[in-house]
Specification:
The complex is a heterodimer of chains A (about 55) and B (about 725). Chain A has about 55 residues and is mostly helical. Chain A has helices spanning about 5-25, 35-40. The two termini of chain B are about 50 Å apart. Chain B has about 725 residues and is an alpha+beta fold. Classes of the chains: A mainly alpha (about 55), B alpha+beta (about 725). The interface between A and B is medium-sized, with 24 and 24 residues. Chain A: This is Cbb3-type cytochrome oxidase assembly protein CcoS. Chain A: Pfam families: FixS. Chain A: Keywords: Membrane, Transmembrane, Transmembrane helix.
Chain lengths: ~55, ~725
Amino acid sequence: MEILVILVPLALMLGGAGLVAFLWSLRSGQYDDLDGAAWRAIADDEPPQEAPVKR
Amino acid sequence: MQITRDFSHYVRDAGAGVQHIDLAVEGVHCAGCMAKIERGLSAIPDVTLARVNLTDRRVALEWKAGTLDPGRFIDRLEELGYKAYPFETESAEVAEVAESRFLLRCLGVAAFATMNVMMLSIPVWSGNVSDMLPEQRDFFHWLSALIALPAAAYAGQPFFRSAWRALSAKTTNMDVPISIGVILALGMSVVETIHHAEHAYFDAAIMLLTFLLVGRFLDQNMRRRTRAVAGNLAALKAETAAKFVGPDEISQVPVAAINPGDIVLLRPGERCAVDGTVIEGRSEIDQSLITGETLYVTAEHGTPVYAGSMNISGTLRVRVSAASEATLLAEITRLLDNALQARSRYMRLADRASRLYAPVVHATALITILGWVIAGASWHDAIVTGVAVLIITCPCALGLAIPTVQTVASGAMFKAGVLLNAGDAIERLAEADHVIFDKTGTLTLPDLEVMNAADIPGDIFELAGRLALSSHHPVAAAVAQAAGARSPVVGAVEEAGQGVRAVVDGVEIRLGRPSFCGAEALAGSVTLDPEASIVAFSKGTEKFVLTVRQGLRPDAKAVIAALKARGIGIEILSGDREQAVKAAADALAIPEWRAGVTPADKIARIEELKRRGAKVLMVGDGMNDAPSLAAAHISMSPISAAHLSQATADLVFLGRPLAPVVAAIDASRKALHLMRQNLWLAIGYNVLAVPVAISGVVTPLIAAAAMSGSSILVMLNSLRARSASREIV
């Protein structure tokens, strides 16, 4: 059971990392437009810039 | 005279040589629009950011400072087919957004703590039935406490604060039992952990907060969205004024940027945005919005004009005496707000539920403790059982029952073109059983339509439309719109109160009063529809007469039939003339109607219906409807209405159809049904769980399963409100 000494802090650290990531995403405004975000996920990517045709 | 647009009021510095502006955009509703707008705007050189917010219907733009005129974005959006307006965030909205973010942060912390405490609790639960050592259990309990106590202290703030406010005002609300439950559960768990007990309720307390925060966040998010939409509407109505920045140069600036002493230009057909005195020009003004007087007043040098009055015929120069917040119109709006607050507060379903809830639960817990003591249990065991009752009855599902339905239902209504102005609008609308319609602008479209366009030769009609572009008169605007005219006739001259004239290819053309065009004889021969007004057009010696009127909304008849089918009483109360109202009532098959009704009569009629026990839905627009909108049980306004009535109406709807009225009634009825169902689900859960808790056999495992089970059930049930909007008419 000594393994708990490593595993428990490890688990808490992973959870804490998740929390920090959430707070970061909140601060950077990723929850400001949930309707739009739902669509952006399935929107087509920007069409690639057409390379200038060489003659 | 040259007109420039000045947006500097709305532009702010985003740092690093970048400027930022927010625009409210009309008509953005799908992913396609979003991509189209973003691509279109990014294509402008020097634009560093163009991002659409689909939820709030806005676009944020950033560009290298000094390189671009923001007017260019509006023009570009116009080319793409969207109307955009510069936008200034109100302080009320800023507060809602901040609150929304705070709740989300609390929710994040609570959810993190719940997951980690649960990770520690499950070993304890399984260890308790197998071979866990007491020392290991204590270690896990202490770890749980280490996570749960600070997390609850942070994430519980919204509840603790609100409970404290209620208690210091010597009242109670739903947050009082929530706070008591959470604090007792945590406190008891710490004491139990110190005494090496088998059970601790850290997980239950923190999970409770998580679920309640979900409900709280959804509720707040709905409010935030309503506020955002209201802010957009304010921007769409953007009050601007043409201010003189040079002797012959005017600039279109927001009212907020106008100061007393400035001189503004007031063109025919414009609504005045400031209070002031006329210093030049001669015109008639319509002050009905302010004084209720429908006859036009002559304005000349020295005449005072007030914000909200409409300039009818000539161009005026006005010296500003008060702008924005200090105007008479702003004063009336404030008075009306006060009147609204005085309206007896409707007792919301959630309030009624919580008023019953707290005493019952606390009494049950107390009786449990006393009962066990009398039955011979130790005080310690009795109190532990009593606290378990409080934990298991904590209003998890109850807290979610109503906000989840409201969120889903308001989203469904939003899609159907209905916006909620008041939080309890859904509940009150669901109860409505009698609808009073105003006629003008409600049953009819607010814009004028040319009725006999088909009888006029196409080229003549187009010419009339192009000439009409030079006038600001509402009738002229209707002609221009109907003709689809784009390029104004060069050299057109407007004669105040008469019409416009110009010379094209050596022939004089005129549009205006029949007398102005020499077409009295022709005008007299037209059989006049009671609602129509007449405008004449002459080209040389050729004379034509156009009849212009407000048409009924296209689906009005179907909507009235649908309302009847739902057993809802319908009547028309209109201030208009009898023939006009009768014509509309006959067309819509509404037997009950009254014409020539004053605002006071409308209120009297509403009061009479109220006494008979009817719940009146008032659908109307216009300033003189504002008091009756406030007097009714629930009110709706079309969005084109004068903005004062918008502030008064509980719901507003967009677009030409009247169908949103039925859609909103259906959606709200379904939502109320689901709210009740959810409350019964929550009560049913308590009826099952409380006896178990009283008997003292509740373990933290049972509490966790019961609470999350009931909450998820309620949330899933709420999702059913989504389908409401699909069954329109």
